[in-house]
Amino acid sequence: MNHIEITEKAKSIIYNDGEITFPDECCGFIYGKEEDGIRLISEAAPVHNSKEGDKKRRFEISPFDYMKAERYALEKGLELLGVYHSHPSHPAIASEHDLKVAMPFFSYVIISVYDAKTIDIKSWRLRDEERIFDEETVTISTNDSVIKK
Amino acid sequence: MAKIIIPSPLRKFTDNLTTVATSGNTVQEAILDLATQYQGLRKHILDTEQNIRSFIRIYVGEEDINALDKEQTAVAEDTVISIVPAIAGGAY
């Protein structure tokens, strides 16, 4: 099973975004480093949910915001490792809509938010060569550094 | 020789290269050349009829090719093409 470690700081940004955006879905990018097969997420950056229509159960990130995220990673010497979004009043289980447009390599972090309070976090990654999501184990690190000693 | 910027999720198919030089006079020719150079990339950017997949957007500079001449948009040696994956989903 793949593993990602999220700093407390990045986790707080994700949780806060999900809670202030509730009952709509929030979304954003996650950045960090991958070392020895473990992803260390040091930064999370909220972006606008550009979905037109029902934002309570859908999110979309504009191509312009995506290109900015790639540029930011290059400038900061970080890797763009995935995307996060919330499931308001639903479990943090990847849905068929999440799977349909999922890209390989990316970690898809999902938080479950009920009554504007985050109750769960999970992460999913597309299995190589197949359109199946595998769950990744998630740990929260109190160390805000991405360098694992 | 347009330059194509490879998005993070697809770099594993380009030996971690962030940019790839391609031949061709149009976006379509450049993308097909890219898929020929890196076969593992093919199914992620082209459908079975060799058209650019609907979940992929292509930008020339800062312009979406859908606002230009689509796949037939002309490219030159100094053109920068970006492959932008759709990022979307939802709870149910």
What can you see in these coordinates?
The complex is a heterodimer of chains A (149) and B (92). Chain A is α/β, with parallel strands linked by helices and 149 residues long. Chain A has a single domain (3-141), classed as 3-Layer(aba) Sandwich (Cytidine Deaminase, domain 2). Helices cover 22% and strands 43% of the residues of chain A. Chain A contains 3 helices and 8 strands; from the N terminus they run βαβββαβαβββ. Chain A has helices at residues 8-21, 63-76, 96-100; strands at 3-7, 27-35, 38-47, 59-61, 79-88, 107-114, 117-126, 133-141. Chain A starts with a strand and ends in an 8-residue tail after the last strand. The mean pLDDT of chain A is 93. With 92 residues, chain B is of the alpha+beta class. In chain B, 20% of the residues lie in helices and 24% in strands. In chain B, strand 3 and strand 4 form a beta hairpin. In chain B, helix 1 crosses helix 2. The model of chain B has no long low-confidence stretch (mean pLDDT 94). Classes of the chains: A alpha/beta (149), B alpha+beta (92). At the A-B interface, strand 4, helix 2, strand 5 and helix 3 of A face strand 5 and strand 6 of B. Strand 4 (59-61) of chain A pairs antiparallel with strand 6 of chain B, so a sheet runs across the interface.
